[in-house]
Amino acid sequence: MITMTRSLTIGKLSEATGVHLETVRYYERIGLMPRPARTGGGYRSYEPEHVGRLNFIRRSRELGFTLDEVRGLLRLVDGHRYTCAQIHEITVRHAGDIRRKIADLRRLERVLTGMAAQCEGGQIPECPIVDALFETREKRMRDARLSMPQAKRPFR
User: Fold this and answer.
1) With contact defined as beta carbons under 8 Å apart, do 104 and 129 qualify?
2) Do residue 106 and residue 56 come from a single domain?
3) pLDDT tens column, 104-135
4) What are residue 50's phi and psi, to 5 degrees?
């Protein structure tokens, strides 16, 4: 943990938090980070509150919160109007989003693995992976229906 007795430059803030200095500038532009005071020479001058806030933003982003979600969390924190129950609800909702993304990624992995299994990796310019990428949505849907057991096929 960094203990500050004086203000930091943007480079020192970046070093202290592990956030790239261009990202710090971006967070200032979009309003996640408050604009710091400036020195007589025009340099940004960051205080301990900036370090804490930037750590909060960085950690939230590492946990997969979107910038809008981080903004919402900061609104609650900044106004001191939050309850643990509100933060809990946001966190549980976010965990559900992550579970859905994991399921989507597993589905993508199965599709890609299936496509790769059809390819022999030969030297001819015909490739089932390329063919599958050009395939129309309608053909995929038709093939999926035809591969279903008769009892599970949708009525048409």
Assistant:
1) no
2) no
3) 999 989 988 988 888 777 777 778 788 888 88
4) -65, -40
